[in-house]
Amino acid sequence: MATEQVTRQDFEEALREDEIQQPKPEPTGAQVFTQVEAELNKYLGSSAADCASTLDCAVANHPETTLADIIHCLMVMNHKRIEKKAHRAAMLKAARKALTIIGEFPHGTENRN
Q1: Are the C-beta atoms of residues 66 and 77 closer than 8 Å to each other?
Q2: What is the mean pLDDT of the chain?
Q3: Which of 10, 19, 81, 90 is such that its CA lies 20 to 30 A from the CA of 4?
Q4: Global pTM?
């Protein structure tokens, strides 16, 4: 069986024809920082009460990703020396709630080995 050399363009075209999705490249540090800044602006651009209610809803639906978002936001706030004590308190309260939800023992698994 002989193999035939193909160019990258031909290979990618054949993948598209086969409807195989190319994996997306991982975001670079600058792209991640931009995404976190956008998330941070969403939380800091409103009142602390709005920030708390937004985070409470997010924690109820997706505690793991919300916890990661809170960590990233707090890291950027520290890096940029943004104080906003009320917003930080709301983020910490939501982070504690997320950890509690993640750490709870799942119902229905008590009798499993």
Answers
A1: no
A2: 86
A3: 19
A4: 0.69
